[in-house]
């Protein structure tokens, strides 16, 4: 099956710093990628939809200036958490769609962000 | 919120028993999918059932879909300790690619 990687798998940072998380599709081209966040013992909540070559579409309540998304190529999308605060500590998961007409999203292993 | 709901929230069984999880959703759908997540890990896709299907099997998994009730169930037969994980349903609507996840069921299978 298709493989999606995320880097880093775990990051600890100080309040006020910015953190970049990468999501890569390893063996397929992904025109669309999705970014989710998941708090402990809760479900995944979609943050934004990232389309290659265009601006991301953010879900209601997600600050686009705080969570910067760039989908510069068909295999890479990045999420930058700017001026991170402790309440941004969460598990961030990306997923990728293989292309038009495909229904199955392939998920990355997630990135655990801890903001001190 | 458009988020679906799952019940039970938590389920504890013995190895060999069957586990049934239920998912309810709120809108018309294209597909419903079930995922498994081990603690602190990413999601593993289990099975996809289309809106025009009523039942699907994959190994020890059986999924049913009742679009009139906007509900689905996942049955894991002859459970194993390795089935211990959280299970989520997720739906996508016609014309939309994004998934809406249910609240999840935490399954514990004891040896």
In short:
The complex is a heterodimer of chains A (116) and B (111). Chain A is an all-beta fold.
User: Termini separation of chain B (Å)?
Assistant: 38 Å
How helix-rich are the residues of chain B, as a percent range? under 10%
Radius of gyration of chain B: 13 Å
Alpha-carbon distance between the two ends of chain A: 37 Å
- Number of extended strands of chain B: 11
Strand content of chain B: over 45%
- Strand fraction of chain A: over 45%
Give the mean pLDDT of chain A.
92
The SSE order of chain B reads EEEEEEEEEEE
Topology (SSEs and partners):
The complex is a heterodimer of chains A (116) and B (111).
Chain A (H helix, E strand, L loop, with lengths): L3 E4 L2 E4 L5 E7 L6 E7 L5 E8 L5 E2 L8 E7 L2 E6 L8 E8 L7 E3 L3 E5 L1
Chain B lengths: L4 E3 L2 E5 L4 E6 L6 E7 L5 E8 L4 E4 L2 E6 L4 E6 L8 E8 L7 E2 L3 E6 L1
Parallel strand pairs in B: 2-11
Antiparallel strand pairs in B: 1-3, 3-8, 4-5, 4-9, 6-7, 7-8, 9-10, 9-11
What does this structure look like?
The complex is a heterodimer of chains A (116) and B (111). Chain A is mainly beta and 116 residues long. Chain A is 0% helix and 53% strand. In chain A, the strands form two sheets. In chain A, strands 2, 4, 5, 6, 9, 10 and 11 form a seven-stranded mixed beta sheet that branches. Chain A has a four-stranded antiparallel beta sheet with strand order 1-3-8-7, with no helix packed on it. In chain A, β4 (32-38) and β5 (44-51) form a beta hairpin. The N and C termini of chain A lie far apart (37 Å). Chain B has 111 residues and is mainly β. Helices cover 0% and strands 55% of the residues of chain B. In chain B, a hairpin with a 2-residue loop joins β6 and β7 (61-66). Chain B is globular. The chains are: A mainly beta (116), B mainly beta (111). The interface between A and B is medium-sized, with 24 and 23 residues.
């Amino acid at each position: 099956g298709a493989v999606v990687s995320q880097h880093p798998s775990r990051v600890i940072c100080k309040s006020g710093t910015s953190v970049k998380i990468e999501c890569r599709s390893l063996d397929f081209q992904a025109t669309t990628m999705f970014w989710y966040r998941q708090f402990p013992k809760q479900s995944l909540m979609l943050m934004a939809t990232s389309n290659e070559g265009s601006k991301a579409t953010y879900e209601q309540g997600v600050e686009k200036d705080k969570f910067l998304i760039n989908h510069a190529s068909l295999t890479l999308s990045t999420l930058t958490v700017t001026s991170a605060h402790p309440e941004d500590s969460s598990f961030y998961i990306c997923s990728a769609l293989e292309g038009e007409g495909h229904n199955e999203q392939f998920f990355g292993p997630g990135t655990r962000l801890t903001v001190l | 919120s458009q988020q679906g709901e799952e019940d039970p929230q938590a389920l504890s069984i013995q190895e060999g028993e069957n586990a049934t999880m239920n998912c309810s959703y709120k809108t018309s759908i294209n597909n419903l999918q079930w995922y498994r997540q081990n603690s602190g890990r990413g999601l593993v896709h289990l099975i996809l059932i289309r809106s025009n299907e009523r039942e699907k099997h994959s190994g020890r998994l059986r999924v049913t879909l009742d679009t009139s009730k906007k509900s689905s169930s996942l049955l894991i037969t002859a459970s194993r300790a390795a089935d211990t994980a959280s299970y989520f349903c997720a739906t996508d609507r016609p014309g939309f690619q994004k998934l809406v996840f249910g609240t999840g069921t935490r399954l514990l299978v004891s040896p």
